[in-house]
């Protein structure tokens, strides 16, 4: 994989990871202000490089040096200006995050990289379903997924099927929780 392909794969995955960070707490756990548009789907072959590798290698450089490294790449310069700007904005957004949040994004990119195409589709569907919920219900489902993240898989299922959850969540919301619990869950951060 070329260096540029690595950079663009990272940037594309970072954008999608940021979407999942907002929408599917089982894969992420940040808040809505970091939401970015979902990038076009990538083939498995394009994702074969290690997710976040370029960023991990350049993470300790000042943001301006990171930008210059990206802007000096001839293939990056050949991209349409709008796409170049999107990548630069994503890099800026990442650099504004506290170090712990950056690490969570990198960890979640790693989790995303290892999902099957079907699991990625399921995550995207969960994102759409979450957006259809009212803000208070979205928050309740998000909090439930956070609680489920701390449990072993068999305990998650028992919790979803419990009378408590049946009283707290609609059948549709419990189905969403069930679907989220079947995805590989990124580990919760220490503050969660």
What's this, in brief?
This protein is mainly alpha-helical. It folds into two domains: 3-113, no CATH class; 117-182, no CATH class.
Structural class of the helix and strand makeup?
A: mainly alpha
Oligomer category: single chain
The whole-angstrom Rg is 18 Å
Tell how many strands the DSSP assignment holds. 0
Mean pLDDT: 75
Largest sheet, in brief, is: none
Number of helices: 11
End-to-end CA span: 36 Å
The residue fraction in helices comes out at 55-70%
Question: pLDDT under 50 segments (min length 5)?
Answer: 1-6, 16-48, 188-192
The coarse silhouette is elongated
H-E order: HHHHHHHHHHH
Give the percentage of residues in beta strands: under 5%
What is the count of structural domains?
Answer: 2
Kindly describe this structure.
By secondary structure, the chain is mostly helical. The chain has two domains: 3-113, no CATH class; 117-182, no CATH class. The chain is 67% helix and 0% strand. The chain has eleven helices and no strands. The chain has helices at 3-23, 53-58, 63-71, 74-77, 81-96, 99-113, 117-132, 135-149, 153-160, 163-168, 171-182. The N and C termini lie far apart (36 Å). Mean pLDDT is 75; it is low at 1-6, 16-48 and 188-192.
């Amino acid at each position: 994989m070329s260096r540029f392909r690595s950079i663009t794969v990272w940037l594309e995955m970072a954008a999608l990871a940021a979407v999942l960070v907002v929408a599917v707490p089982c894969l992420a756990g940040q808040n809505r202000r970091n939401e970015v548009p979902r990038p076009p789907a990538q083939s498995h072959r394009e994702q074969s490089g290690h997710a976040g590798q370029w960023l991990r290698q350049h993470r300790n450089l000042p943001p301006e040096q990171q930008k210059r490294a990206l802007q000096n790449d001839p293939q990056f310069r050949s991209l349409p200006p709008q796409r170049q700007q999107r990548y630069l904005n994503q890099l800026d957004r990442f650099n504004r995050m506290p170090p712990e949040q950056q690490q969570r994004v990198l960890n979640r990119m790693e989790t995303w990289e290892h999902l099957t195409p079907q699991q990625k589709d399921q995550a995207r569907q969960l994102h759409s379903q979450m957006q259809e919920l009212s803000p208070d219900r979205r928050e309740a489902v998000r909090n439930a997924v956070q609680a489920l993240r701390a449990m072993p898989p068999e305990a998650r299922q028992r919790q979803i099927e419990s009378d408590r959850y049946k009283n707290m969540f609609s059948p549709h919301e419990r189905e969403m929780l069930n679907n989220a619990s079947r995805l590989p869950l990124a580990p919760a951060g220490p503050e969660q």
